[in-house]
Write a structure and sequence with these properties.
The protein is of the alpha+beta class. The chain has helices at about 5-20, 50-65, 90-95, and strands spanning about 25-30, 35-45, 75-80, 100-105, 125-135, 140-145, 145-150, 155-160. The radius of gyration is 18 Å and the shape is globular.
Length: about 170
């Protein structure tokens, strides 16, 4: 569950990202004191370049100065989401259809007969994203060959399961 402060920051950064032609993937605040770090993950439809990340750093810094969301100093890190990119919105799940994801549900989540095969109580699911029902807000994974619909509102954390392909690599 995100704090009010995180939600306010996400909303402000999301608006700024959209205006700048970026997709705000996610953010995370870790550490404390001199080790505090605010990591902001951004992406662009055409991909990220070093210049794009530097430009994003500028407008993200402006938003942070206006909001001043965290006491004290912290390091801002603007980053690409990488191959194990976070999935935070329904649109992120739609773009990831057909890809493998790892989804962690809230600890308070109780599966219904509709949303868990054989009504098993699990909190972590790994499977292929096979469907996103935006109206019902259900994400369906294929888990062990069976469809497993999960309620978007109860997803605590989700990310793609990154895969590296070394098959096509030629050694020098």
């Amino acid at each position: 569950m995100r704090s009010k402060k995180e939600i306010q920051l996400l909303n402000a950064l999301e608006a700024a990202a959209c205006a700048q032609g970026f997709d705000l993937v996610d953010l995370e605040f870790t550490g404390s004191g001199r080790n505090a770090l605010l990591r902001v993950y951004v992406d662009k439809a055409e991909g990220l370049t070093l210049d794009a990340v530097a430009g994003a750093n500028a407008w993200i810094s402006e938003v942070l100065e206006k909001l001043d969301p965290y006491r004290g100093s912290y390091t801002l890190e603007v980053s690409s989401p990488g191959i194990d990119r976070p999935l935070r919105t329904l649109a992120h799940f739609v773009r990831a259809l057909g890809e493998e994801a790892i989804i962690v549900m809230e600890s308070s989540w109780v599966p219904s007969a509709q949303t868990a095969p054989e009504n098993k109580q699990r909190y972590k699911y790994t499977g292929l994203i096979t469907d996103v029902d935006e109206q019902k807000q259900l994400i369906t994974l294929s888990v062990d060959g069976a469809p497993c619909p999960l309620e978007f509102i109860h997803i605590k954390k989700a990310r793609l399961k990154g895969h590296l392909d070394f098959e096509g690599r030629k050694d020098s």
